[in-house]
Amino acid sequence: MSAPQNTIAIVYDYDQTLSPSYMQDEVVFPAFGIDGAKFWARCRELVRDHGYDNELAYMKVLLDTLGMDRPKNSELKKLGAKLNFYKGLPEMFEQFRNGLLSAEHHAHGVTVEHYIISSGLKVLLDGSRLQPYVRAIFGCEFDEDDDGRIMFPRRVISHTQKTQFLFRINKGLLDMSQDVNDHMESDIRPIPFSNMIYVGDGPTDVPCFTVMKKNGGQAIAVYNPDDPQRAGFRKCYQLSTHADRVKHIAPSDYRPNTHLRLLLEQMVEEIAGRIVERRKSAVETGTVRAPKH
Ligand SMILES: [Mg+2]
User: Fold this and answer.
1) CA 14 / ligand 1 centre spacing (Å)
2) How far is ligand 1, taken at its centre, from the CA of residue 208, in Å?
3) Rounded CA separation 252/16 (Å)
4) How close is the Cα of 248 to the center of ligand 1, in Å?
5) How far is the CA of 201 from the centre of ligand 1 (A)?
6) 117 C-alpha vs ligand 1 centroid, how far in Å?
7) Cα(82) to centroid of ligand 1, in Å?
8) How far apart, in whole angstroms, are the C-alpha atoms of residue 54 and residue 48?
9) What mean pLDDT comes out for the span 231-248?
């Protein structure tokens, strides 16, 4: 039997996409008195001189720097409550709960779900004010030793691996014990790519932008409009204008009536409209039951 495919997924990167800062700088370093400049310099050294992946480098430097003071995951989770976001968040998620979809969309069972895929630490996002609105958060994770202190990476999500999680959302395989590579016919995948919108901020999101484009999904690259150096804007401009990686770019302002909100709402509306049309024609041909009014 085919899946109803009436869920719309908005998938977000985290650092620089939902937040103007990096989560480690914002909440982890102040809590443990870590010098951010030294920390990232050491990470760059590991990448440059020792061939480390970026994500494994920051996880190793964090463990090395904390040494005996390594916290528990539960302590990191508490720090996540201090994370701050771009303007309009988390309010947008609340506003999207009521009023984004019409009565007709609801009658056909259309829903919107939010997901975060980050190369940062999942546990911080689990403790954040965004968590209640998000169906699933994917990020790097530490295992704990016998004393419950963080000790070794349990999961690392590099920017190229982020695409795997788009397929997990597409196939509804949110449990990590399920193999994302298992074959699944397109009509039983719960969230087709045409029902997905990806929001990211730059080069590290290019693999995800590419997957969305190839599979008929939508993507938006966002930039911090308050950065006087315009670094984010330049990255986005390059990706859309010269590299043709992403069609839409917008300032990372999630408040109502901003360019980003208009794009997101328009995309959701169009996808929802398409779902309703498809279901109406399926009702006519008798393959699904009419919605109850
Ligand atoms: Mg980012």
Assistant:
1) 6
2) 12
3) 8
4) 16
5) 5
6) 10
7) 19
8) 10
9) 94
Q: Three-state DSSP class for 244?
A: coil
Per the document, the length of the chain is: 293
Sorted by where each begins, the domain ranges of the chain are 7-21+81-284
Amino acid at residue number 60: K
Whether residue 1 has pLDDT greater than 90? no
The CATH number for 7-21+81-284, chosen from 2.160.10.10, 3.40.120.10, 3.40.50.1000, 3.40.50.300, is: 3.40.50.1000
Give the tens place of pLDDT for each residue, 79-121. Answer: 999 999 999 999 999 999 988 999 999 999 999 999 999 999 9
Ligand 1: distance of its center to the CA of 222 in Å?
9
Ion ligand 1 residues within 5 Å by Cβ: 13, 15-17, 201
CA of 243 to the centre of ligand 1 (A): 18
Distance from the alpha carbon of residue 19 to the mean position of ligand 1, in angstroms: 9
- What is the phi/psi pair of residue 267, to 5°? -65, -45
Output the six-digit token pair for 101. 């979809």
Q: How far is Cα of residue 116 from the mean position of the Cα atoms in its chain?
A: 3
Distance (angstroms) between ligand 1 centre and the Cα of 74 equals 24
Whether 259 has a pLDDT exceeding 70, the answer reads yes
Q: Distance from the CA of 276 to the center of ligand 1, in angstroms?
A: 33
Q: What is the pTM of this model?
A: 0.96
Q: pLDDT tens for residues 169-224?
A: 999 999 999 999 989 999 999 999 999 999 999 889 999 999 999 999 999 999 99
User: Is the CA virtual torsion 136, 137, 141, 143 positive or negative?
Assistant: negative
- Report CA(223)–ligand 1 centroid distance (Å): 10
Q: Is-contact 90 114, C-beta < 8 A?
A: no
Q: How far apart are CA 58 and CA 74, in angstroms?
A: 19
Task: Tell me how far apart the alpha carbons of residues 100 and 104 are, in angstroms, rounded to a whole number.
Answer: 12
pLDDT at 292: 65
